[in-house]
Every structure is written in C-alpha cells, then in structure tokens.
Amino acid sequence: MKRAIFPGTFDPFTVGHYSIVKRGLHIFDEIVIGIGHNQSKKTLFTIEKRIEMIEKAFENEPRVKVTAYSTLTVDFATEWQADFILRGLRSVGDFEYERTIGDNNRLLTRIETVILFTEAEYAHISSTVARDLMSYGKDISNFLPPNVKV
Ligand code: ADP
To answer: What is the CATH number of the domain that holds 111?
Structure first.
C-alpha cells in the first residue's frame, strides 16, 4: 500500500491542486490531503469550508482523504503511515522552497517528497490570485475544481 500525504494551506484548493492529486493517484494507492493549520496564520476560508470544498471535489474518489493537522508535516505523515509527501511545482520560484523543505523532511524521517510539474494550463493558478480576485468581487469558478463552489 503506497500512501502519500499532500500537505498545503489550500486557501482555497484550486484546479491546480486538484490536477496534482488526480495525477498522484496514478502513482499512489491513497492520498491524504492535509490542511496545515496554524492559529497565527490568517486565512480567507475556514478549515471547515476548505474540508467541505475538497471533499466535494473528490466525492467519487474513495482513495482520497481530507483532514486538517497542526503538527509538523513529517509527524502528520508518520501518523498516517505515509512514506511519501506529494507536492506540485509551477516555476523556478517554487523550486528552491520545495527543495529546502523536501531535503529537511527526508533528513528528519527518510520520507521522500515526490514532485509533479504542473500542467501548463494551470501554471498561472494560485490560491493567492484566487483570493485577490475574490476580494474584488470577481468570480473564481475557473480556479476551482469541477463541481466546487465557494
Ligand atoms: P503551501 O502553503 O504549503 O505552499 P499551497 O496550498 O500553496 O500550500 O500549495 C500546496 C502544494 O500545491 C504546493 O506544492 C504548491 O507548489 C502546489 N501548487 C499550488 N498551486 C499549484 C498549481 N497551480 N499547479 C501545481 N501545483 C500547485
């Protein structure tokens, strides 16, 4: 049984995140989406709303689970007996950050990070832009997975 966690803030979970998980299901038997929860970090969407939106996106996919966590990511992975951390890469901007945390996580626990390159049509999609657009009253349905609404 190959299990990976897909950790992130997902504020909100976008079609870019959705694509990474769908593709990850070709590699892993099960993916646990972990919403990292930090009391001091302000988010637009509540934990409950983020869980609800992600559950809706994967309502027909029993191999995907969703939960929040407030521990170190590697401890969350260990708790779920996951040997892999799944992440997505959009640009060279993402690269240095992902390498640093990936190296640290492997040194802490031997858990490997598996990184998938984004599909070109989602390279510009980010939770930050989605939140900005929302704050100006714009429709962000193109940023969200199929069947998911804010
Ligand atoms: P974090 O706060 O941990 O960076 P995010 O919710 O921003 O969490 O992202 C979670 C993961 O999804 C990260 O690996 C990020 O690079 C990846 N990701 C975000 N947007 C996209 C996208 N459009 N295409 C592919 N991967 C993405």
So the answer is: 3.40.50.620
